[in-house]
Design brief:
Layout lengths: L5 E5 L6 H15 L2 E8 L22 H16 L7 E5 L2 H11 L4 E6 L4 H6 L2 H8 L3 E6 L4
Parallel strand pairs: 1-2, 1-4, 2-3, 4-5
Helix pairs in contact: 3-5
Amino acid sequence: MNIYQHILLAIDFSEDIQFLIERANKMAVQNDAKLSIVHVLDNIPMPDTSYGTIIALDDETDNVLLEQEKNKFSQIGTQLNVPENQRWLIWGSAKEEICALAEQENVDLIMVGSHGRHGLALLFGSTANNVLHHAPCDVLAVRLKNE
């Protein structure tokens, strides 16, 4: 029996994201698990929309930054062969949105990159640390290279 059936990979677009992508893919293959991906937009102002915080990946907008994020996100989804209905691009707080999505989609493992922050950066928190303490399931924080 496999340990995990549904893995949620929470991604940002840091330089060392490829390492995390490879780890998530291996974990999904080893567990014969469904792999989903999420990216939380917390650095682009949210426009006034009637459809909530989830961004439709197939709708074009006038927002250049949003279109760049959508393109990067779609490339990663394609690289991992993640079906479009298992890709979420969401506006909001990373901790809250990742944890809510994991609960909604019955995820049993969240994978997130960790940059190993120390001192004040650790005190103020990181996405990995916040997800770890609020997730409804197991969390695997993959150590990424220090920048």
